[in-house]
Amino acid sequence: MHDGRIHPHRPKGRGLGVMLLALGLSTSLGACTDVPATELEPLGEQTQSIKNGTVWNPWTQNTQTWTRNVVRLSGCTGTLLNREWVLTAGHCFANGTSTDPSTVTARLTLADGTVASSQGVELLFHPRNSEGVDVALLRLAEPIDPGVDSLPIYSGTTASLMGKSVFCAGYGAIDTGGSCSESSDCASGQWCQWGVCMTPTDGRLRTASFNIITDPVDPVMWYRFSVPNPLGQIELPGDSGSSCWDGTGLTGVMKAGNPTNYNRQTSAEAFRDWVNSVVTPTQVKQVNQPGASCRTVQGGQLSYGSDGEAFNSGNTLSQLLCPIRRPGDGGFANVVDVPRLFVLDRHPTANVCCRLQSKNPSGQLITTTEVCSTGASSDPQALVLPSVYDGTTWSQFNLVCSVPGIAALGRSGIQSYRPRLSMR
Fold this sequence. Notes:
The structure is a single chain. By secondary structure, the chain is mainly β. The chain has two domains: about 30-280, Beta Barrel (Thrombin, subunit H); about 280-424, Galactose-binding domain-like (Jelly Rolls). Helices cover about 5% and strands about 35% of the residues. It has one helix at about 270-280; strands at about 55, 70-75, 75-80, 85-90, 105-110, 115-125, 135-140, 165-170, 175-180, 190-195, 195-200, 205-215, 220-225, 245, 250-255, 265, 280-285, 290, 295-300, 300-305, 310, 320-325, 335-345, 355-360, 365, 370, 380-385, 390, 395-405, 410-424. The strands form five sheets. Strands 17, 18, 20, 21, 23, 27, 28 and 30 form an eight-stranded antiparallel β-sheet that branches. The longest helix is centred in the middle third of the chain and has 12 residues, at about 270-280. The chain is elongated and about 70 Å long.
């Protein structure tokens, strides 16, 4: 992952002495090797921490509520498009396609000030990433419910954005200082980049509005900002991967920073179709299945209700396997998720816990994280599971659930589930 430094293949130059977001300063200070955590000033001692980007709490604002989906990545900023997918920049991951997605963590600040976090389970780069479409998608192992259920990508052309004012948000550097050749030239708590001392993020989201102008190199793939804006703001290290909003959708993704493209974003026109094909794949089939489709594969004593439920009537934990048919008409679905799974949890201490899995005849097993019920109840509880992707056509999709034994309140089990199959 990007560590906040200029790497050898990225040209180094002098930064501009003002203000908000762009490349990849680590948002986790311990991960930024240019800024040792022990050298950081306490927040109260930092100066001009609000001078540049406008400090923004999206949960207390009734405008620009899309910012409730902005997440911090180690070294960059990202935006939750829905509960599973984070939109960010490809250069945020220094190891490229060899990056292990489980080493990447997305963090979303919630309304109560707590932070929801999830590791990645899949990392995809735009097919034209090497040509300059600097965009990546991170799928989360444990979905995070965002402030806005889903965010659209701007539907117009790059040309139609010219002259528009867009609202941008990110966790970038918050100030610049004197010139430098290395971090030791800077004040305590700063680091050196582009030949300028940078003050790292203090963990608060910052925003600014910019007017879009034509990119002189490629006016379709990219656009630029007219900077500094009237408030003296520009984007600085830390906001690579951040997005902007024009009132209808996300207009672009911030590229890497250097003296020639510090104010450049990859335009929605260049990546929109690809992102939509991944995040909202073509649905092939959606089927309601009764719990009676499930079979016991370990422990317990399976019985069925008159309405199609599958119950554990034994005293010990039972593992149930519920097959999910994988239609092959017109091509085999390669994505499965369960938007609704109704379980019956009547045990006072144990929960019903379920996950999706894909099993290949060769033995490869892909599984999601488990989602569990919460507390005993006579009424069914609805669970929503993470999705599974498997491009191998012979793989079998299954729902696997652990169901506790019978208790005073009654039997626990699976009432019904709804698999949704799609194709990327």
